[in-house]
Design a protein that fits this description.
Chain A: It is found in: Mitochondrion. The complex is a heterodimer. Chain A is of the alpha+beta class. Helices cover 37% and strands 19% of the residues of chain A. Chain A has helices spanning 2-16, 22-26, 46-49, 80-90, 95-103, 109-127, 187-199; strands at residues 68-76, 136-145, 149-154, 160-165, 168-176. In chain A, helix 5 runs antiparallel to helix 6 (109-127). Classes of the chains: A alpha+beta, B alpha+beta.
């Protein structure tokens, strides 16, 4: 069977290169094509691909779909945990407000995020048919771990530690329109809901 | 390791004395506490060489790289050239002003008609040269074929069928048709032809060497078409799905005559100088304005948006 031959030669190749194909170890080897790998490489740069999806034309009675622009920057020399604070700060803000906050923030990551936002705004107007550049708001904004470089940190008594030179990625999604108003739930409202939930219980098998 | 500058800055930013607004006034006003500014005193044993180097010019940089023994690979400055089509329209046809505006029955219309019917000598010569290479060519039948190629090419553009489009359209015309349309949806419909298409102009330029002949024929067609362009999100950018428009177009078809497998393909369009301006797109666009000095105001400048000149151009 052709699949058996392919899989067998693939297994030999992997063994020779001292890498174990995990599926082989778990499942029974050389069963009918079930061990065949389909993805050879792991492509994780999905955020850039989100800008390429094309929606079909809308009918006249449908409400207009708001434009969405995805942008990211990879391998920024900053910690992902420190970047998270800035990302959480601007989440949900309009783009002008976000740019203002970042301009006067003391953190190092604010410079990078501001550049990313400006690039995304320009891209939106030029390529994605966004009408007004101020009519955008930050729908999603988060940071992720980048590839770390490892260095040696010398301690006393001949001891050493491995120092990580941290890098992070920053992702942002801008959506056209005014930012949605987030209704803050007060503790009183939550308590009221809880009481109503208790009151709406039905007691079964009772008189 | 140097201490961070925070301690130094905290001294300057103290709201110590009254009226202390900026750093310069620190020197004049008497502060409450004695000022202790931390200073770096530890000697650096290793100073990287790049610190002492001043900026180098290009020749000095190259000399340093050569002295270090680093060999840069030879740079091949190459540009690919396409020989299956020409790069432009040779001796473009200049459409007479008022074409398709005057009715054929009036006196001016008849005069225009007689002028147009009498083809110029260069076009007749070009037709003869084309018939030498392509025996099936006839100026009457060719116009209908050209319109069919035009309709098929635009239908392929609507579906983004690249292979079919490459066979119907030359390599020079393809990027102009396709640029900017990758993430857009096009809806185009050819409703009817108002006048039968006519061949108006022909030229046979030689490219590079004498025998390498290409044929370029201009076809005039007056038709009714519908166009609607939707952006990435399905919103209407330009045009209308249901509104047909009367379109007068001058298409240029080209063929590489020497090549026995060459075929007639759409090479470009000629837009005359008197063509009506196109419709604006639905969204508002910002045009960069003049640079203002701090004391000027935009309203007082009486700035007029510059309009492009009405010149014939070919696409």
């Amino acid at each position: 069977d052709i699949y058996q031959i392919i899989h067998y030669s693939f297994c030999i190749w992997t063994i020779r290169n001292l890498r174990k194909c995990k599926k082989c170890q778990i499942l029974a080897p050389c069963s009918q094509g079930s061990c065949l790998h389909t993805t050879a490489q792991l492509n994780t740069k999905n955020w850039d691909r989100k800008n390429r999806i094309v929606y079909p034309p809308q009918q006249k009675d449908e409400p207009p779909r708001p434009a969405e622009v995805f942008h990211c920057r990879r391998q920024i020399k900053y910690s992902k945990d420190k970047m998270w604070y800035l990302a959480k700060l601007i989440k949900g803000m309009s783009i002008d407000q976000a740019l203002a906050q970042l301009e006067f923030s003391d953190k190092k990551g604010a410079i990078a995020i501001k550049e990313v936002l400006l690039e995304a705004q320009e891209m939106a107007v030029k390529n994605h048919n966004v009408e007004f550049k101020s009519n955008l708001y930050v729908a999603e904004s988060f940071s992720g771990k980048g590839k770390y470089l490892k260095r040696i940190r010398y301690h006393g008594r001949g001891m050493f530690g491995i120092m990580d030179k941290v890098h992070c990625h920053y992702f942002v999604k801008l959506v056209e329109g005014t930012p949605p108003v987030v209704v803050q739930k007060t503790p009183f409202d939550q308590a009221k809901e809880y009481v109503e939930q208790l009151r709406s219980r039905t007691i079964i098998h009772s008189l | 390791m140097a201490a961070s500058m925070c301690r130094t800055l905290r001294i300057f930013n103290q709201p110590a004395g009254p009226g202390l607004k900026c750093v310069a006034s620190l020197l004049e006003v008497q502060l409450a506490q004695p000022v202790v500014i931390p200073v770096r005193t530890k000697k650096r044993y290793f100073i990287p060489p790049s610190v002492s180097i001043k900026s180098r010019s290009l020749e000095e940089q190259e000399a340093a790289v050569r002295a270090a023994g680093v060999v840069a690979r030879q740079q091949y400055i190459e540009r690919p050239i396409n020989i299956s089509c020409t790069a432009g329209i040779v001796d473009p046809y200049i459409p007479p002003e008022g074409d398709a505006r005057l009715s054929t029955l009036s006196k001016e219309g008849l005069k225009q008609r007689t002028e147009q019917l009498r083809q110029s000598a260069a076009s007749q010569l070009a037709f003869r040269k084309i018939k030498d290479h392509d025996s099936e060519f006839s100026s009457k039948g060719f116009a209908v074929k050209a319109q069919e190629i035009f309709i098929e090419a635009h239908a392929a553009l609507t579906e983004f069928n690249k292979e079919k489009l490459h066979s119907l359209v030359t390599e020079r015309c393809y990027p102009e048709m396709v640029r900017g349309n990758r993430y857009k949806t096009l809806h185009w419909r050819f409703i009817e032809s108002l006048e039968p298409p006519r061949v108006v102009h022909a030229r046979c330029p030689d490219m590079v060497s004498k025998g390498n002949m290409y044929g370029q024929v201009t076809v005039r067609m007056h038709s009714r078409q519908t166009l609607a362009i939707y952006d990435r999100f399905g919103r209407l950018m330009l045009g209308d799905e249901e509104e047909p428009r009367d379109v007068l177009e001058y298409l240029v078809m080209e063929r590489h005559l020497i090549n026995p497998y060459g075929c007639w393909r759409l090479h470009g369009k000629i837009v005359p100088a008197w063509a009506p301006p196109k419709d604006p797109i639905i969204k508002t666009v910002m045009i960069p304005g003049p640079k203002l000095k701090p004391e000027e105001e935009f309203e007082s400048l009486n700035y007029e948006v510059p309009n492009p000149e009405a010149v014939q151009w070919h696409k």
